[in-house]
Amino acid sequence: MKTLASRHFQLFTAACLAVALLGAMPIAGRDSRAIAAEDTAQPMASIVVDVETGKVLSQDRATERRYPASTTKLMTAYLALKALREERAALDTPVVMTRRAAAEPPSKMGYQPGSVIRLDNALRMMLVKSANDVAFAIGQTIGDGSMETFVTMMNDTAKRLGMLDTRFINPNGLPGDGQYTSAKDLAILGVAIRREFPAFSDFFNTEAISSGKRVMKNGNKLLGRFDGADGMKTGYICASGFNLVSSATREGRTLVAVVIGANGTIERERNAAEILEAGFKADPAKIDTTVDELPTAAGEPLDVSGYICSSKGRSARANERVEEKEREETYGSPYLHDMNRSPVVLPVSLGGAAGNEIAEPGISLISAYGIPLPTPRPARPQDMAMTPPLTVDDLIPPAVTNEAGATDDLIDGEENGGEGDAAQKAVAEPATMVGNARFDDPAASDLRSSEAATGGLRGKTSRLDIYREGGDAALALQPGSPVPFPAPPPPAAN
Q1: Catalytic residue list contains 311
Q2: Could you tell me if 63 and 410 are in contact, meaning their C-beta atoms sit under 8 angstroms apart?
Q3: Phi, psi dihedral angles at 192 (to 5 degrees)
């Protein structure tokens, strides 16, 4: 006969089992793939495409929907280069850092609202530093002041290129609902850039930029370490893992490779080097499938944040970095080598742009940016009757108090890997706290109305239109004199 204690033990055991089974059941309305992603590392998605033929040299989960992170900036760059080709913009077109752009979270340059950048410098800041604030400002410029217009341009272009598993919601890849892509689609975009804009390939293989005494290195570690590497863009948010769209050229043959969902830059670069090396050994003549023939996907994108940003995922990356110090091969790959030279550094800066209706040629900061011009109200007879006569004291100007100004608050201490953990928070700092803007600086006050219309912008924007923000911000594109496509510079020595 069982004792009372044994019965209690059985009941307790049954209760524990029920709780365990309940915890293992899928949560209603939640993607089962997201649950699996919390338990262990997920396989990476990858693809290699021959640029000339479009042949798929290798692929693994290439059509699976994933998050693009900062590889989104490749589409922003594509549209900027397209505007250059169509002479709607020039290399010296002014890109104005609006208050909305300055509020984007890191990675960022941290320039204060009203700062003016040449378009070519802005592109390098976006592609090397992965500056989210600059990407937003470029989008506003190319979109005639409207981010809604620019995002529509992004999605229309994606559809035209055949990127049918891609949807963009912003120009920089910061986290947000409804933004997704696939390795296949990013390869299509990379191939389009290499085919359509060969004269601008230098923008994508810039090893480092400098601004004043600050040097910012490219997060793409294949540059200078993999023979023939010449582009393109990194990306990272928790939901995506570590992404890389890379390109390499050997003996006149260019390949584009995509890796999505790696757990760290070392694993990412190692896998990219491996599939690129195999791609150069493959014979396109023996391959029939082209990238546009791959099927499309459906459903929600795979979210790998449960592992990538867990203590388990972070520990794995930390262990990889420790192991790297003891390895004989760079990143544990026979196809990579140390960069036995200093990176080639290109200087970038504010200023030097052409002028438009709100920015004089060459200036770095628009004076009193964001402060509308006052409109005097006509004097009314009743006001005049109520105004007392002037006295001698009225003619003495009031004393001006010299209060201590607030200190500059520099944002974003990270120079590289700017798509990192800070971007996960996606909390925009107040624009008055960004860059070198002082709290009492009138240039940090950018008064705008989100209800402004944007008709007839190009070359006709009034001074006050520029301060209208939101979906209909009116920031006119001022192409100036079109600049001819530059000849591609000689490749940097490896």
Answers
A1: no
A2: no
A3: -60, -40
Active site residue 73: yes
pLDDT, tens only, 396-442: 444 433 333 322 222 222 333 444 444 443 333 333 333 333 333 33
The one catalytic residue in 55, 73, 129, 221 is 73
pLDDT tens, position by position, 332-357? 999 999 998 999 999 999 999 998 88
Q: How confident is the model at residue 478 (pLDDT cuts 50, 70, 90)?
A: very low
Check if 333 is active-site: no
Query: Residue written as tokens 């979270």?
Result: 105
Residue 426, both tokens: 């996606």
Q: Among the options 46, 70, 201, 240, which is catalytic?
A: 70
How would you label 65-81 residue by residue, b for 16+ Cβ within 10 Å and e otherwise?
bbbbbbbbbbbbbbbbb
Q: Which of 46, 107, 115, 130 is catalytic?
A: 130
* SS3 track for the chain: CCCHHHHHHHHHHHHHHHHHHHHHCCCCCCCHHHHHHHHCCCCCEEEEEECCCCEEEEEECCCCCECCHHHHHHHHHHHHHHHHHCCCCCCCCEEECCHHHHCCCCCCCCCCCCEEEEHHHHHHHHHHHCCHHHHHHHHHHHCCCCHHHHHHHHHHHHHHHCCCCCECCCCCCCCCCCCEECHHHHHHHHHHHHHHCHHHHHHHCCCEEEECCEEEECCCCCCCCCCCEEEEEEEEECCCEEEEEEEEEECCEEEEEEEEEECCHHHHHHHHHHHHHHHHHCCHHHCCCEHHHCCCCCCCCCCCHHHHCCHHHHHHHHHHHHHHHHCCCHHHCCCCCCCCCCCCEEECCCECCCCCCCCCCCCCECCCCCCCCCCCCCCCHHHHHHCCCCCCHHHCCCCCCCCCCCCCCCCCCCCCCCCCHHHHHCCCCCHHHCCCCCCCCHHHCCCCCCCCCCCCCCCCCCCHHHHCCHHHCCCCCCCCCCCCCCCCCCCCCC
CA dist 365 and 446 (Å) reads: 13
